[in-house]
Amino acid sequence: MLVSSFALAACSDGGKTEAPSSSSNAGSETPKAAADSKPAEITIMAPLNTSETPPDTIVKELEKLTNTKLTYQFFPADSYEEKLNTTFATGGLPAVTYLKNQATFIQMKSAIRDGQFWEIGPYLKDFPNLSKLKSTTLDNTKVDGKLYTLYRGVDIARQGMIYRKDWADKLGLKPPETTEDLYNMMKAFTEKDPDGNGKNDTIGLTDRNDLIYGAFKTVASWIGVPNNWGEKDGKLQPEFMFPEYIQAMDYFKKLRDEGIINKDFAATSKTDQKKLFTNGTAGIYVGAMTDVESLNKDLVKNVPTAVVDVHSMIAGPTGKYAAWALPGYANVMLFPKSAIKDEAELKKILAFFDKMMTPEVANLVYWGIKDVHYTLVDGQAKKLDKELVEREVKAFTDAAVGDEDTTGRYIGLSDVPAMTKAQKLKIDNLEYAVQDPTAPLESKTYLEKGVQLQEIIKDATYKYMYGNLDKAGFEKAIEDWKSRGGNKIIEEYNAAYKK
């Protein structure tokens, strides 16, 4: 059961843990300097992607290593945007405020322009570890050329398919090389009784109500749809104005019409999407390949003989490979002026995040405590108890800063072969990564109306795939998008693109 959206603290003592009387050496401070300095008190608000708030196990260690007194305010990710907006409206944002994703960052840009958050770009040069943050990712998070955020890095091209290899082997199917092969595999998983129980109770693909992180965007990229925006006829245009977008919708409509996908996918949560895979109903899950470890764990509880595998190189009708790429960050954090009174306080907070990027601290918030949560095998971290890591560590992993390579944290070692393969494939995907050309660009109209206007396209896309809208109806929705501000967005992005 999720915690109440009004539960403010991550820790059992209300989110505040007393700092130890002495502090270990962290960053560039000497032990004596760290012990003599007063712990910096920092309150952090972040989304919670686990079922309950973690105990204070990691917080206590984090405070020791960084000489801080920390208060974490975690709120369930499903309702985080609502809580974020409410807290912002009442002027109650804490000193460190994580957003949720790229979309919430875009929504917050007008407030950033209004001067409500600290610009931190000029300070990064003073911090040796923060200076290691990737310039391309930082550029993608700038507002009018200025940096206001730190970011939590993400695998740039991690998307692919997770599938039942035991089903594929039974039916004599190889990993799909094309989207047509993928369709044939999904159809066979639906119609040829891959679980051998003599019942018509399996489907090829499980999906959810998310056109980006669900299956649609990944399959669409294989078909040839650009990443949010692409260049056509010499100018930038949104993805849904490309003919390949219609092809992608037709692909999913066919899956639904033939019962190859869960028919209510537009109303299916991620939790329920995963359950369809882990309870043995669906044979394929399209999304982040690194989800394979958790999916496998739950699947083998229900189907002990199940074998999973991952795959990503799938060509569309043109024969080309493509993998849509994230802008380098999963989340960003802002520093409200309403909560940080002066430059000196801001520098103390930045110093905390500088220490968060040291290997020692980065490993703590990513892997946990050595010999409690993980052990080292040939220099790689292997989880000792995955459920314990999920319960006690994951919330802090999601509130980290930097990347695997910029922090020097350990690479993971999994006892699930498909997870090891997924780690390799996400690197292989980089060769075919398709970037969003508008990621570093600005459109005033998009900031004001983009999220609202996107609902027109989202609604029309689902209606088309459900068979409630034809091509003419979808094109009418595009014209509606254009007339309500879309034409202005196209104009502004192209003006910025040419600079």
TrEMBL record:
Residues 19-28 have a biased composition (Polar residues). Residues 12-40 are annotated as: Disordered. It comes from the Bacteria. Keywords: Cell membrane, Lipoprotein, Membrane, Palmitate, Signal. Pfam families: SBP_bac_1 (PF01547). This is Extracellular solute-binding protein.
